[in-house]
Amino acid sequence: RLQESGPGHVKPSETLSLTCTVSGGSISSTNYYWGWIRQPPGKGLQWIGIIYYGGSTSYNPSLKSRVTMSVDQSNNQYSLRLTSVTAADTAVYYCASRGSEGHFDYWGQGALVTVSS
Amino acid sequence: SYEITQPLSVSVALGQTARITCGGTNIGNRYVHWYQQRPGQAPLLVMYRDSKGPSGIPERFSGSNSGNTATLTISGAQAGDEADYYCQVWDSSTAVFGRGTKLTVL
User: Fold this and answer.
1) Helix (H, G, I), strand (E, B), or coil: what is residue B28?
2) What is the model's pLDDT at position A3?
3) Do the beta carbons of residue B11 and residue B98 sit within 8 Å?
């Protein structure tokens, strides 16, 4: 239902870009927000942000200055951009749908992004 | 920012009941959601809105939330339940995850 795609390797100071393709449902659904969550190797889950199909967003305050999320309704996709990456941004990045109760009910399989020179 | 406390690890004997807690100030006033993550897999929602089980989740999983503690209870623990479990709440417009609890089934 959700599938992440994008480069698996990014150099320090560059921009990480990922796309999540939604299948089996419409990204324009009024019932859902669309989110990104990441997990550094061996560590816990960190919420990055969410976006509504109309474009409204909410970001993790600790990442807000570097994060941009966008929606492409025509392709049923949404995207994440994280600028000025460092090794600390190395993680598995998950896209997930947020249901009406605030829970993340469907998750992508995850995409490992490694930041190194 | 809102802080959540989870025990690092919980152990349970096969077939017994495991209880995993998620602590926070007046967490009972918030909806708590729970995720199971097996090694190498994406998280799986196992409980939402404190005590609602998604379709396909065994009824052995149950949840409660009151005061300063939310609890995920797994009755009749099976080997396949061995995983990391994360609780999650919303603090204003920010999602907050607990640090996770590793459940070991002995």
Assistant:
1) helix
2) 98
3) no
Question: Which of B8, B50, B97 is the best residue to mutate to test the A interface, defined by the most A CB atoms within 10 Å of its own CB?
Answer: B97
The distance in angstroms from the start CA to the end CA of chain B is 36
Cα-based torsion angle of the residue sequence A63, A65, A66, A68 in order, rounded to the nearest 10 degrees = 100
Please report the pLDDT score of residue B35 as a whole number: 98
Residues 6+ apart with CB under 8 A from B13: B77, B105, B106
A29 — pLDDT class (breaks 50, 70, 90):
confident
The verdict on a CB contact (< 8 Å) between A46 and B97 is: yes
CA A105 – CA A49 distance, rounded (Å): 15
Tell me the per-residue pLDDT of A53-88, one tens digit each, with 9 for 90 and over.
Answer: 988 999 999 999 999 999 999 999 999 999 999 999
Separation between Cα atoms, residue A63 and residue A11, nearest integer Å: 18
A109: which chain B residues are within 8 Å (Cβ-Cβ)? 42
How is residue B44 written in tokens? 């799986």
Residues of A in contact with B45 (CB under 8 A): 103-105
A113, amino acid identity: V
- The residue ranges of chain B whose pLDDT is under 50 are none
So what's the pLDDT on residue B63?
Answer: 98
Contact predicate B49/B65, CB 8 Å: no
